[in-house]
Amino acid sequence: MKLNKIGGGIAVVLAAALAVSALPFSGITAFAEDKDITGNTMFTADEIKLGKVASGELLGGDNDWYTFTLTEPTKINMVIANQDNYQYQLIDEADDNKVLDSSGNGVIRDASMNKTYYLKAGTYYLRLYSESALIWTPSYDIKLTATPCKLNVPGDGSNNAIGDAAEIELETKYNAQISNNDYIDYFTFSLEKEGRVTFDFEGALDAADWSLYDNQDDLIKHGTYQKNDAKDSKITKKNALILKEGKYTLAVSRNDKADSYGQYSFTLNYLEKYNDTAVNGIIAFGDINHDGKIDAKDASSTLSYYAYLSTGGTETDMNQWFVDTFGPFEK
Fold first, then answer.
1. In terms of DSSP bridges, do strands 166-167 and 195-203 run parallel, antiparallel, or are they unpaired?
2. For residues 329 and 231, what is the distance between their CA atoms, to the nearest angstrom?
3. d(CA 128, CA 45)
4. pTM of the predicted model, to two decimals?
5. CB within 8 A of 207, min separation 6: which ones?
6. Sheet of strand 53-57, all strands in order from the earlier edge strand to the far edge
7. Residue 10 belongs to what H/E stretch?
8. What is the pLDDT of residues 24-51, one digit of tens each?
9. By the 8 A CB rule, do 184 and 253 touch?
10. Using CA atoms, how far apart are residues 303 and 328, in angstroms rounded to an integer?
11. Model confidence over 181-202: pLDDT tens digits?
């Protein structure tokens, strides 16, 4: 029963309590009647205004249903205060009314709750209910606060399969979100010429997995981004790969070993003449041997090339020199 629906709600509760007190103790078995039928089922759920406090009370066996709709991936902070002897469920309409989170079999008593969810666009239901026959009436205050991720990826955010990848552009910053109910995003991009592509990533997560696929949807490289320190507020990482011309698909997803959700942004920076001294001033230090890592082997290759030039070698593209000297890159 919601307090803001029946002006005489308190009187109704007091009357019910007096009536019950006149019964023998053995007669206190039936749930008290809830005369307010709106909001008692999913089909009569009340819309809850984000950022505003909603208050209500629950007679034994009563349900209070709320609903809200998100137009883009959003961080939802849920605070429930004055909790006393009731339970809750958060439900995703788009996923066959799946229960995303709940209080389980336990009953919430005398405590406030603060929880955060990252949800994709869609309609949701929040069910507050009591399964106990009580003389008193549990009451609650609830507030949902929304922080949209400011999604600017083409499409509606349903890029959850490699065949539905969102087409993105180089040198453009994109905002997205790994959600509790949408934990992988696919993006596709094309290179007209070989070049160095730097994946510049930052996100308010503990960890995130990434994968890169070729135009046959075969996995090329994959890895995990993590915070450098537990005290870090977000992940900030860069990863550079030399890629041939063609079409590629990038996936960003929840970490396989540790659930972590949150908003993130990324840019794919492209440099065609990545070894051109006229462009860079010095030869770029990157994934010279094309093994997906920037490490001591790449540094050694760069020094070898400089040694070749310093002993009278003909200046040429370093990648081609590397192939001519050490053989083709391993696939």
1. unpaired
2. 39
3. 11
4. 0.71
5. 224, 225, 226, 227, 235, 255, 257, 258, 260
6. 53-57, 139-148, 74-81, 113-119
7. helix 9-21
8. 333 333 344 455 555 788 999 999 999 9
9. yes
10. 19
11. 999 999 999 999 999 999 999 9
